[in-house]
Amino acid sequence: MAFSLSDDQLRALALDALDHARALGATDAAAEVSESTGLSVTTRKMKVETIEHTRDKSLGVSVYLGQRRGHASTSDFSPAALRQAVEAAYTIARFTAEDLAAGLPDEDMLEHAPRDLDLYHPWALATEQAIELAQACEQAAFDTDRRIVNSEGANVYASAAHFVLANTRGFCAGFPSSRHSISVSPIARDQGGMQRDDWYTHSRRADGLAAPEAVGRYAAERALARLSARKLSTRRCPVLFEAPLACGLIGSLVGAASGGALYRKASFLVDALGQKFFADHISLRDDPFVPQASGSSPFDEEGVRGQARDVIEAGVLTGYFLGSYSARKLGLKTTGNAGGAHNLTLHSTRTQPGDDFRAMLRKLGTGLLVTELIGSGVNTVTGDYSRGASGFWVQGGAIAYPVEEITVAGNLKSMYANLVAVGADRVVRGGRVAGSVIVEGMTVGGA
Q1: How much is the pLDDT for 357?
Q2: What global pTM score does this model have?
């Protein structure tokens, strides 16, 4: 996946935008120039359904007149289009109201010597090869069992991108990165009806992906396991959230602890620093510097240096996720999280190396294993949590039967406080890392 523009060309474009902003009278400015390429192939029932080749480029510029800000963007990198974008941002800033929180990050917060995190591993993937991989993934699903009768498709995706971010406070840096994945969604059928499930593998490196056949078989096994699902009566019981869903629970915390929700007073974590939300054995680490990881970056979207830190330490909330704007609104300093969290990892001092998924079922004993959640149903203002769900009823530490058409409900405060175990069966989803988790005392709504 070759780029059409060099890093030096991206840098020159960004600096040209800043020079033009200064010439117009801007007090500050920032420009980001990026280019990306990608290949996405989807097959369904072994036939090619879509082939997409993408090549995108963008220049975005923010112009400040004191504490008034304007922003514009263009995909045309000609000198005339660049000037027009800068002038459009300048004009918007002229007619925008002042905002005391607006402005570039403080110069001492900027990362002027970014480290190399080994994020760029392009995949020289031909279209024919991508088709073969997608077909192999889907075929493996169909070969698993005769009850796999249909498929929503298999996808193979390879992408690469690079960018340069520059501002008028002396910051100018960027880096290339890559992201690749293989996924499939098979459908199973028996006399009781049909069920679907899915699975995927993703990595910055092609050789870090699971084999397509393994992805297909596992997705098929998940769909088959859901056949002949039953309903449950309403009850209170412990709930084991499968690892991918545990990553979602972390995501709910990130949403509530992010600057936008906090300064708008739309979060149950307003003024909550130093308060205890989890048991002593729980910590949550934000680390942007993990080599090759999906959530890694040497600096955030504003050029602010990252920091590895515990946002939950021994159960206590010790940090928020702030960019420069939200930090100023709150009277705090940016945490280098403009754009979100980085490789946020859930830890428990109780977790042992042998605490795999089967061990977590044994720890659950009798209760509900949730493998799919439906709908949003999370109120970050109050912490109320209610989601449609499906999964399995667990009896005596073993799966008894699949269940569907249920809800799981509680409040995030009590759910976090009642998180009693974290598995060693870690997965990565959206820059969050977690094993399966057991939450005691949840309400399960059923028939």
Answers
A1: 97
A2: 0.93
